[in-house]
């Protein structure tokens, strides 16, 4: 048994090169739904920088659920903030930050430890980029204030490879009440040779355990992380002493268990009720973030990794496969109107849409089939479903 970790207070890696935070404190109401608030901080950096580490310091850990630090090079976040006049800094955006981010620097969850990336690697921070700190607040029954800050540590030696994130995710959770051993799973096939630096498992209050394994093309299996007793209040990224090599064709498999019964002391619902994926603390998630570097990237030689799109396409293919596993009730390889409507309802919950207060999912399914059912089979095949989701993403990006 390793010794109990000691969490250093303050800035864990010493004083940062640059500290960014909102100009004023945010005032959080005592009760109501969770709040996702985005705070926009211009960097005014004259040239591109690389970071060896970042540390997020929540200003009020009683109400900060998690933090994600995004990058905006379009100026959109500034415009969103300028439209808000509620007496608080920032703007509210449920789920995502409300714009198409140029990237992300990192984040924070309870129990997270700051680490410095290995020499020759780092995170890219473009010149003049705005940093957007998205804070998820969970109200505690009394008025609170917060002023979360982010410390940036610049890399002062050449960077050969960028650190990137790959999510392994099951967005179609539907955990029945009373189920003490609900299992969720997801897998992604890695299309390029990579080295995994760390793995961050993330679930909410029903999460019990998570196992992430890599099944290599040669038939061997490597355990990347095994958390047999997950604790929402003590999450961390598990960083390898030596990065793990995963050749192209490796299948990364996530398996997670949830306890939605009375035997779970953290269950927020008494009595238990069905819980879906969602952004509220009392909803659930199933995701593992893999931080990795690409083997064929050499920025010093001017060779930038070109496989980022293929990596995200692999994630998309995984989600399409899961959609059919969850909703193709008759296993015919086609999502009919009713099956597609159930999937659309799940996606709307995922994006914070209040189902039933706008266009019914059955109507959306009918429209989607009329547009995308090129084979006239009365439903959508996997490629047609991919086309539908791509159309939605492009539409949202251009709105």
Architecture blueprint of SSEs:
Elements: E1 18-20, E2 26-28, E3 35-42, E4 49-57, E5 64-72, H1 76-82, E6 91-92, E7 103-108, E8 121-125, E9 130-137, E10 144-146, E11 149-154, E12 161-162, E13 164-169, E14 174-175, E15 182-189, E16 194-202, E17 207-215, E18 221-227, E19 238-246, E20 251-258, E21 275-276, E22 287-294, H2 308-327, E23 335-336, H3 337-350, H4 361-372, E24 379-380, H5 382-398
Parallel strand pairs: 8-12
Antiparallel strand pairs: 1-11, 2-10, 3-6, 3-9, 4-8, 4-11, 5-7, 5-9, 13-22, 14-21, 15-20, 16-19, 16-22, 17-18, 17-20, 23-24
Helix pairs in contact: 3-4
Could you give a quick summary of the protein structure above?
This protein has 399 residues and is an alpha+beta fold. The protein has 3 domains: 18-159, Copper type II, ascorbate-dependent monooxygenase, N-terminal domain (Jelly Rolls, Sandwich), CATH 2.60.120; 164-307, Jelly Rolls (Sandwich), CATH 2.60.120.230; 328-398, EF-hand (Recoverin, domain 1), CATH 1.10.238. It contains 5 helices and 24 strands.
Summed over residues and divided by their number, the pLDDT gives a mean of 91
Radius of gyration: 21 Å
Domain count, please report it. 3
Structural class of the helix and strand makeup?
A: alpha+beta
Distance between the termini: 53 Å
Q: What is the CATH topology descriptor of the largest domain?
A: Jelly Rolls
- Strand element count: 24
CATH architecture annotation name of the largest domain: Sandwich
Strand proportion: 25-35%
CATH class of the largest domain: Mainly Beta
The number of helices is 5
Shape: globular
Order of helices and strands: EEEEEHEEEEEEEEEEEEEEEEEHEHHEH
């Amino acid at each position: 048994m390793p010794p109990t970790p000691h969490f250093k207070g303050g800035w864990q890696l010493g004083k940062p090169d640059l500290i960014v935070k909102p100009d004023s404190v945010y005032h959080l109401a005592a009760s109501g739904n969770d709040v996702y608030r985005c705070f926009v901080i211009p960097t005014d950096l004259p040239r591109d920088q690389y970071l060896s580490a970042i540390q997020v310091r929540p200003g009020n850990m009683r109400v900060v659920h998690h933090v994600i630090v995004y990058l905006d090079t379009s100026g959109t976040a500034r415009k969103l903030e300028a439209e808000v006049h509620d007496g608080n800094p920032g703007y509210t955006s449920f789920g995502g930050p409300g714009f198409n981010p140029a990237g992300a620097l990192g984040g924070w969850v309870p129990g997270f430890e700051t680490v410095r990336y290995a020499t020759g690697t780092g995170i890219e921070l473009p010149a003049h980029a705005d940093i957007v700190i998205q804070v998820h607040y969970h109200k505690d029954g009394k008025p609170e204030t917060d002023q979360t800050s982010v410390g940036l540590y610049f890399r002062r030696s050449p960077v050969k490879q960028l650190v990137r994130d790959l999510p392994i995710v099951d967005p179609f959770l539907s955990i029945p009440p009373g189920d003490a051993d609900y299992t969720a799973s997801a897998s992604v096939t890695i299309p390029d040779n990579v080295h995994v630096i760390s793995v961050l498992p993330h679930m909410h209050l029903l999460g019990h355990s998570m196992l992430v394994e890599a099944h290599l093309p040669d038939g061997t299996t490597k355990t990347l992380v095994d958390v047999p007793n997950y604790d929402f209040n003590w999450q961390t990224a598990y960083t390898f002493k030596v990065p793990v090599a995963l050749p192209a064709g490796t299948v990364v498999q996530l398996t997670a268990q949830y306890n939605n019964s009375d035997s779970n002391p953290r269950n927020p619902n008494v009595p238990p009720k069905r819980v879906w994926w969602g952004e509220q603390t009392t909803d659930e998630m199933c995701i593992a973030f893999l931080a990795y570097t690409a083997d064929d990237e050499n920025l010093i030689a001017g060779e930038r990794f070109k496989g980022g799109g293929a990596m995200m396409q692999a994630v998309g293919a995984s989600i399409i496969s899961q959609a059919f596993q969850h909703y193709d009730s008759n296993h015919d390889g086609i999502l009919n109107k009713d099956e597609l409507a159930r999937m659309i309802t799940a996606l709307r919950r995922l994006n914070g849409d209040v189902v039933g207060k706008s266009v019914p999912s059955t109507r959306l399914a009918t429209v989607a089939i009329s547009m995308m059912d090129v084979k006239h089979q009365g439903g959508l095949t996997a490629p047609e479903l991919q086309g539908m989701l791509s159309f939605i993403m492009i539409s949202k990006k251009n709105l």
